Amino acid sequence: PGHRPAVSGEEAAAAARVEAALRAAGLQPPDANTLAASSGLTPAVVTRVVFALTKAGRLMKLGDLWFHREALDALKREVAALGSGATLDVAAAKARWGLSRKFAIPLLEHLDRERRVERCHHDHRRRRHRRHGRRQRRFASEPPPVRDLARAVPG
After folding, report:
1. pTM of the model
2. Fewest beta carbons within 10 Å, which of 17, 38, 42, 99?
């Protein structure tokens, strides 16, 4: 506990460049090779730095891509602002945030794992109910779940 590996000045500078590039990329981060080419670092150094930043909690790996934590936190705030019952599918995510499918799919899967949205049929995702984390009824004609009936019936 309390042990921190020593980081050389070169690695610290490399980490700062990689982190700045990923922060600036937002929800469309470059892959490791592109990141290496644009930052003037070798792919091995970029890989080492990215894993160190991930371990430090500043980056998160989703699929084959690394996203900066600030971009993911901003995305979660935007999804929360959509409100309970809002639908969000791949096409809507692509249009809303200007993403290609390459980025939209891992981000929606991440939101699903974080329980910010839930998967409905045909990849539609719906904002979870804020208080209880329960899914909203899909259609007005759908009967409420049994637990809701128990509350609705006077005792």
Report:
1. 0.72
2. 42
